[in-house]
Amino acid sequence: MDTYHDKRQSVSVQGIVFSLNETFTQYYSYSPIVKGGKAELHNRLEVGFNLALQKFREKNGDLPTRIILYRDGVGDSMLEEVKNSELLQLKQSLSKIYGERMSSLGFKAIVVKKLVSSRMFRKQGSQLRNPAPGTVLDDVITMPNFVDFFLVSQYVNQGTVTPTHYNMIEDVNDANIKPDQVQQLTYKLTHLYFNWPGTIRVPAPCHYAHRLAYLVGQNLMEEPSPQICDRLFFL
Predict the structure, then answer these.
(1) What is the pTM of this model?
(2) Is 72 an active-site residue?
(3) N or C: the chain end with fewer CB closer than 10 Å?
């Protein structure tokens, strides 16, 4: 999930991209244009998740037993607001869909932050080098009140590499997946962006959502037709 803000029109575009299969090759997208406040955004998100979960059930025969949400476009000052407002309303919407099964639904929400001032190095002899792709730092410089980590997913041979910061602000009914496994999943998802043969800075679904929100807000100026929402038309 990512957001594009158009200050000229005073509207926001919420880009949401849902994976539909276990190999992360099929997606369903939804991009509401929101002109009102949080109430309208909540209503539109509920509609989007309903449509996506129906599509998932059509393809797989059942609803997912686990949902992992990567949320981009959130600063540190907005973490509590996202957790106590946006995610709370989202879980209320999911409870309407899942009913009694909601108590067994695994749900994780991870905030993705690309604007990071921290830098990581590895010592090689007497010199400092960029860390290798896949390097994770989850201690010392992380936030004390959250489960978070820094990940270097790209190889950089000029300048210093900028890690991406991931902050898990919600983890419900999903004790079977440990933090190390979340880190591995996140790194593997950076390999799956169709428009690039290597790795990117964020998980592929997260960058798809960014491309979707930007396209709708900057160029289309209207919500895409539902007929193409199961295609990666925004690449």
Answers:
(1) 0.90
(2) yes
(3) C
